Amino acid sequence: MRRNDLSKLFYWSMYFLSFFPLWIIVLLVDVKSLLEGTDHKYTEIMSIVLIPCGVFFSMIIQKKEFGIRDGVSDKFIILGAEECKTMTTDYLIANVIPLIAFDFAQWYEVLKFIIIFLVIGCLCITHNIFSVNILMELMKYKQYDCRLVNEDNIEISRRVISKNALTMKKGNWISVRQINNEYYLE
Q: I want to staple 147 with a disulfide (CB 3.0 to 4.6 A). Which of 24, 62, 80, 121 is the partner?
């Protein structure tokens, strides 16, 4: 059976890691709150334990899925490629920064955040929105909008995630693995 789509667990880990800057801020706020003697120390302790665990397991899942090279891959010639340079900034401004407004030292605020976070996550995963991920960028992966042609001379446009500078590979063959209907991984 062809492995077209990555696991839902992988999508959740990518979604979770896309909020990495927010997790750092939450940890800093919670540590500061604990040092100042907060009345809600269990909220802070839970997030100080759970957030690093979530980041750690999500990174393991991400690294495992990105490292898989078995299964069926498709070969294409690159007709054109353009790097998606503003995706991370756009994503942070639209999705991550507004969530800093929550007071993560209060149970009620944490609950509101979790509800919004899960709803947005369900929508992203249901609609195969394979968004940006800062840690993926730190691993040297970039996203490219590519026009590709296969061996049967069928032209398609897809977003390709690669460590290679695809803008410099016009006319070259690449071997990719399909992530979903929109994304390929080289």
A: 80
Residue 167 is assigned to a structural domain of this protein: yes
φ, ψ (nearest 5 deg) of residue 86: -100, 0
How many other CB atoms are found less than 10 A from the CB of residue 114? Answer: 11
Averaged over 117-121, what is the pLDDT? 86
Phi and psi (nearest 5°) for 47? -70, -35
The Cα 153–Cα 139 span in angstroms is 33
pLDDT at res. 90: 67
pTM summary value: 0.72
- Let me know if residue 128 belongs to a domain: yes
Number of domains observed in the structure of the chain: 1
Residue 13: enclosing H or E segment and its boundaries? helix 8-17
What is the residue whose two structure tokens read 């410099």? 168
In which domain, by residue range, is 138 found?
Answer: 8-185
Joined together, the tokens standing for residue 14 give: 């990518």
